[in-house]
Every structure is written in C-alpha cells, then in structure tokens.
C-alpha cells in the first residue's frame, strides 16, 4: 500500500494540513485555527491531534503516514527545524521539528512557507517538474522562492530568494518595511501598485480610476484592460521594474520557469504580457528563451503539496 | 598511496595542467600550447600525451591518476561534456569528454572555465570552503560563477552566472558585446572602466589621468588612491553600479563569500572599500552581514585546482 506524506502549512490565522500520495495527489486536506497563545506552544500539540483524528475519521492506520513536511513563517534554521522567531505565531526560540516529532512519532522536515510553496509548484503545479525554478509571490509584499538543481536554495543564512528587496530605484525611492528605500516590493506588490495608482490619480484626475472608492491592484489591471491610459502607465511602470529585476535574476540563475503567484497574479495575461515584454528587453537571448512565465496554479494547496515533497525527500 | 587528480584548464592560447592531491595541493603544474588547427581535434591527443609524459618524468605510475576535471570555454553540455561551440578553440560539436576519456583511459568531467575557477577558489582559495559562493571576474569582460550548496549552479541551459549582463543602465547605456545596452560589463570591466575614464577626461582635462598615454583601469585606481577627484568619481560610479548589482544578486542567492578576481581586482582595497560601502547600502542587513568580500587568491591556478575538485566529485 502506498505511503502518505503529511504537508503542513502554518500561517498566522490557520494551519493547512493534507495527506498526500507518493505521486503528489492530495488525498484529503483540512484546516485548523492557529493558536498563538502561550508563545505558540500549543501548535505542535494541535497538529499532532489533528493528524491522528483525521486518520481515525478516514479509518486509516496511522502507519500509513511516512513523514511530515512543514512550512512555517519567520526565521528558521532549516537543518534543525529551529525557529528563532516568528512574530505572527508568537514563537521565539522554538524547536518546531523536535516538538512535532515528539507529538507525532514521525520524521519532520521544516522550511519556510515561501519555499515550500515553490516546491509545491515545482512538483505538481505551474513549475511542471522544472529543476530550476523561480517562484515570485506578488501579494501584500513581494516574496520569492528559488529551486536550483531540484533543491530549495537557502543561501548561507536562509535569506536566499528575498527578491522583494532587490533595489529598483537606487536613489529617492519609496520607503520599504525592510528599512531601505526603492525596493521592488514598494512597486510590484499589491500595496506598491495601489500606491503608484494613487499618485497617478492625483496627477491625472480624468482617469476612470478616480471614480473608484478604493483603488487596488485588481482595479488598476481592470482599468488597463479597458484602455484607461493612466492605468496602463501604472501597469507599464510596474512591469518595467519587475521585468528588469526578474531578467537580472534570470541572467544570474537561468531558471526554466518563472512562476508568478499571489493576489496580483490574478491579472493573468494582463500582467504576463507586458511583463514578458520588459523581461525580454533585459534578459540575455538564451536566458529568455530558456525561461517560461507561468501563473501559479496550486493556490492555497501549494504549501501542503510542497510540504509533502519535502517530507518525501526526508 | 594517495591518488592524484588531473586539473586541466583549456584556453585559447595555452592549456594549463596540474596533478593535484586529494587535499587540493598542486604536486606539479605545467602548460602546453593550444593547437587550434584541424578544428581543435588535436587538443585531446596532446593533453593525453602531456599527462603520460609528465608521469614518466616524475617516475610515477600512471595508475596514481584517478580522474580528470576540465575547464573549457564556449557553450558546453555539462553532463555529457559535449562542446557545441568554442570559437576561440575552433571546436564545433566536439565530444570533449568522450575523446579525452579515449585518449587517457581516465574518467573525465567537463565544466566551463569560469565555473571551475569558482570551484578552485571555493576549495582552496579565497572562498575558503564556503558552500555558497559568488565569484566575479572583472577582466576584459565581467564573468561570474555561482556555487550553491557546494555545487556549481548551471541553470536550465548553462547560462547561470552571466552576471556581466545584468542591466545596470536600463535606458541609454553603452552598447555591450551581447547586443544589449547598459550591461554591468560596459561599466565594471577593465574595458568599461577605461571607457568611463576617457569620457571623464574629455569633460575634465585638468585630471592627472589626462597626462597618461593610455588610461587603463589600473591607472584609474592609482590616480584615485592619490586623490585625483576625477578618478575618484570614476571609481565611485563603477562601485555604485557593481555594488548595486552584487547586492541584488546577494539578496537573491545569499552567498557566504563574494570573491572578486580578474585584472581589475588587483586594485585590492582601493576597489573593495568603496565596493563594500555601496553593497551595504543596497543589500538587506542579514544578507550583508552574511557575505564577506575577498580578492581571489589562486590566480592562474584556480582552474587547475577547480578542475581537480570536479574530478574528485566524479
């Protein structure tokens, strides 16, 4: 009988769990609330209970579970699965791997949440098995996960893939949460796009965007699709900086796929078309021809599937 | 008795060879001319003869040699050691690995010359064993080699590390050999620095640089060290663009060491100090604190030692 792997994606409000086959198919998935009380120390207990209950519910032997892969936010030492700090969860110096192994009796592997989402897309999503893959998440911030030679790239102290903090505007850019200015995140995140739109509306009150109660990234792409010139200029500015940054990354790591996820990616081709145009201006010919742009396809399941992949590697 | 590995670094005019111990010490090294006649088809024969002659000369058994690692220019398929094209050598569709294995009876591993130099610096040079390493060569062009998780990063079609073609000036930059404009190579190579110096002299004929018959990168750094303001401005401009590009790369791959080699690196601290200043402006704090700048220390031996490392990995 095939073994199952457990993928766990720990977020600030909910924990997503799933049993996943060796082939990467989700057998069942469910969510439990994240209990941030008591410095997050109940979380591993709750995960252990949830996994056992689910086995009972499915009338499956607990032995069918082979290993657990967990994605967690915060600053993590991957080898030991030790969390130095995860502000949203309340963890500080928390031995996540050890605690969860104690609760479950299963081997646990831990990585950060952006990375396991990238692994999920690599295995079963838009990455389509590519061993060299860049995943970009355009949400409230801009995150990244890099897979090279089929493995997540962590770098010397777990900071690899922090592509939201590539500098797009070296002098006089907008302030970023990281303390620098002009980071890609200040331009290409949902927040950054809304900020650019507001600045554009102030200068061009004739735009259809001025009629919206609140201008989000979604409305900017919709207005651009309808031909609003001010919205089109915002989209061009975003895609110029994002395309340049991704081309520079691609000239460095030469990925087979560039998978774009997060809320902003829902714009689909309205984002991908101008983005690919700018990317192709700045990437070397062979690099550009080797790199395929895709919209992330797993949505909220990416973390569960990537966690299972991690568990499978052991 | 310890086995020896053979490192071979094939260039357009000479081939550097060395016997290297398991610990990475060069036992002996020598050079032979590169015979580019006959589409480069004599090269593997000459390498085979040179290795056998050297064993005789040293009164060593040929059995002492374990494997060969070769660095070659041009576009290479690493797995099969097949050279699609190497213009300087004359190779076109040349099965380098197979041919050299036939000549020597030893297992051969092939990679490109920039990459094996990076492996050499990682193993025995300024990289000091770092598993996450960026090597930058500032010579006629700007080259790069990336080591991640202790392995060379090739990317999907062998283009990883092409950092000379990161775009530093998106609009209106100088033309680059690659066909794009504003590449890092047009600014931070020896050629780029000389170009910037010439432009600065035209605008500021009072500079001491104006007295030189020919202005090279070396003279720019020397004049800057002596306080020439125009030379200092050129160095600042070079270090601004190079520091920004390296910070963006470091935010992406989070290296432990950034090793700078090539002719321009002879400026030593006159380059590293302003470079680190600009790098620290643009890199995330944790990324900057994780990354140490070093001048490459192996010089022309980097390829031989890196080749031996590659041979040792098999």
From TrEMBL, chains A, B:
Biological-process GO terms, alphabetical: glycolytic process
Family matches, as Gene3D superfamilies: 3.30.420.40
Top-level taxon of the source organism: Bacteria
InterPro entries for the chain: ATPase_NBD, ROK, ROK_cs, ROK_glcA
Entry's transmembrane regions: none
The EC number(s) this enzyme carries: 2.7.1.2
Enzyme type, top EC level: transferase
One Pfam match: ROK
Alphabetized GO MF terms: ATP binding; glucokinase activity
Family to which the UniProt record says this protein belongs: Belongs to the ROK (NagC/XylR) family.
UniProt protein name: Glucokinase
Native source organism of the sequence: Halalkalibacter hemicellulosilyticusJCM 9152
């Amino acid at each position: 009988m095939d073994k199952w792997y457990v993928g766990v994606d720990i977020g600030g409000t909910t924990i997503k769990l799933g049993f996943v086959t060796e082939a990467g198919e989700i057998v069942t998935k469910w969510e439990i609330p994240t209990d941030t009380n008591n410095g997050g120390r109940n979380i591993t207990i709750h995960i252990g209970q949830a996994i056992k209950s689910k086995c009972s519910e499915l009338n499956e032997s607990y032995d069918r579970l082979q290993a657990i892969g967990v994605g967690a936010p915060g600053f993590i030492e991957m080898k030991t699965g030790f969390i130095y700090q995860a502000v949203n969860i309340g963890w500080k110096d928390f031995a996540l791997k050890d605690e969860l192994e104690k609760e479950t009796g299963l081997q646990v592997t831990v990585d950060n949440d952006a990375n396991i989402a990238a692994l999920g897309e690599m295995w079963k999503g838009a990455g389509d098995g590519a061993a060299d893959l860049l995943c970009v998440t355009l949400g409230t911030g801009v995150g990244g996960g890099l897979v090279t030679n089929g493995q997540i790239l962590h770098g010397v102290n777990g900071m690899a893939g922090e592509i939201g903090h590539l500098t797009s505007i070296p002098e006089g850019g907008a302030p970023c949460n990281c303390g620098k200015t002009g980071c890609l995140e200040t331009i290409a995140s949902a927040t950054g796009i809304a900020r650019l739109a507001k600045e554009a509306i102030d200068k061009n009150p004739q735009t259809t965007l001025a009629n919206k109660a609140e201008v989000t990234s979604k409305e900017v792409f919709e207005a651009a699709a309808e031909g609003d010139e001010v919205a089109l200029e915002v989209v061009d500015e975003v895609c110029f900086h994002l395309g340049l940054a991704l081309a520079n990354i691609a000239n460095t790591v030469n990925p087979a796929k560039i998978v774009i996820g997060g809320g902003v990616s829902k714009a689909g081709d309205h984002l991908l078309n101008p983005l690919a145009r700018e990317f192709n201006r700045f990437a070397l010919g062979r690099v550009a021809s080797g790199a395929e742009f895709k919209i992330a396809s797993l949505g909220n399941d990416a973390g569960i599937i990537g966690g299972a992949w991690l568990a499978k590697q052991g």
